[in-house]
Design a protein that fits this description.
Binding site for Zn(2+): 48, 51, 97, 100
Family: Belongs to the MsrB Met sulfoxide reductase family.
Shape: globular
Strand order of the largest sheet: 3-4-8-7-6-5
Domain MsrB: 9-131
CATH superfamily: Peptide methionine sulfoxide reductase
Number of helices: 2
GO molecular function, one term: peptide-methionine (R)-S-oxide reductase activity
CATH topology: Metal Binding Protein, Guanine Nucleotide Exchange Factor, Chain A
CATH architecture: Beta Complex
Helix content: 10-25%
Active site: 120 (nucleophile)
């Protein structure tokens, strides 16, 4: 279990770009096809842009055709939290960072084996740490 990181909106605004703040703290969504990680194949780990919490390994990334980077599974059971999302007249499962509660995207049950899951993420909510570089959590 990771230690929680809780900051005020003002502290998040100082730490994040306006786009990161909109997605991570206000549950926004980047336009499909616009994310910087959509076609990325570089080995490494995707971490939360807000706090550095490890989220996904590059080996679990796949091309879903949806316009957002997609993954079949998380780094581990404590990396994300899944929340019922009934906004906009839909029933979905929202995915949030387990450490800072930042909105990352949604998970759907239509992914490829081995999990059958599609973690559909916003690029702006993540940073990529190339393989071999240390993973460091952002300190409060």
């Amino acid at each position: 279990m990771v230690d929680k990181l809780t900051l005020s909106d003002a502290q998040w605004r100082e730490r994040l770009t306006p786009e990161e703040f909109n997605v991570l703290r206000k549950h926004g969504t980047e336009r499909p096809g616009s994310g910087c990680f959509l076609g990325t194949k570089t080995p490494g780990t995707y971490v939360c842009a807000g706090c550095g919490n490890p989220l996904f390994k590059s080996g679990t990334k796949f091309e879903s055709g949806t316009g957002w980077p997609s993954f079949t599974q998380t780094v581990g059971p404590d990396s994300v939290a899944e929340i019922d999302d009934r906004t906009y007249g839909m029933v979905r499962t929202e995915v949030r960072c387990a450490r800072c509660d930042g909105h990352l995207g949604h998970v759907f049950p239509d992914g490829p084996p081995p999990t059958g899951l599609r973690y559909c993420m916003n690029s702006v909510a993540m940073k990529h740490v190339p393989e071999g570089q240390p993973l460091e959590l952002v300190r409060a």
